[in-house]
Design a protein that fits this description.
Elements: H1 7-43, H2 45-56, H3 65-70, E1 75-77, E2 84-86, H4 87-99, H5 105-108, H6 111-129
């Protein structure tokens, strides 16, 4: 007794079942998403609509861009550490920083630190050719 197995027919049925399962899963995901959105609207309708109404009902609170451009800032933040500064302190700090621009970077670093940096650069260069240097 011999049995003949039609492999192509089984593959077609399997692929058809996979396509059907994928479309069913996709439909379930969309339905779940819509259900969650509707549930959220039913739970928090006042909060959602209150935000949109408050944004629409306060056009006089919005300051025009022309006014904002002409506004004089009386406080600022330090570019170094982010601390709150007054306008006078900010201008003094910026003047000090601008005066440092004329000084070469070599003079800002102590000779010992400069030597360590040079040695680290040399070590990095040598590691390209001799990789087992610690």
């Amino acid at each position: 007794m011999m049995f003949q197995i039609d492999w192509e027919d089984n593959l077609k049925q399997a692929s058809h079942n996979e396509v059907r399962n994928k479309s069913r899963n996709r439909s379930l995901a969309i339905a779940t998403l819509i259900g969650l959105q509707m549930a959220t609207l039913s739970i928090f309708p006042r909060a959602i609509f209150a935000e949109s109404q408050s944004r629409q009902s306060s056009p006089e609170e919005d300051t025009p861009e022309e006014v904002l451009r002409a506004e004089i800032y009386t406080d600022a933040r330090s570019p170094i550490d982010g601390k709150q500064l007054t306008a006078a302190e900010y201008t003094e700090l910026m003047e000090k920083l601008r005066s440092l621009d004329n000084i070469p970077p070599e003079d800002l670093v102590s000779p010992k630190i400069r030597e360590v940096i040079d040695l680290l650069k040399l070590r990095k260069f040598l590691r390209q050719f001799i990789p087992f240097i610690p």
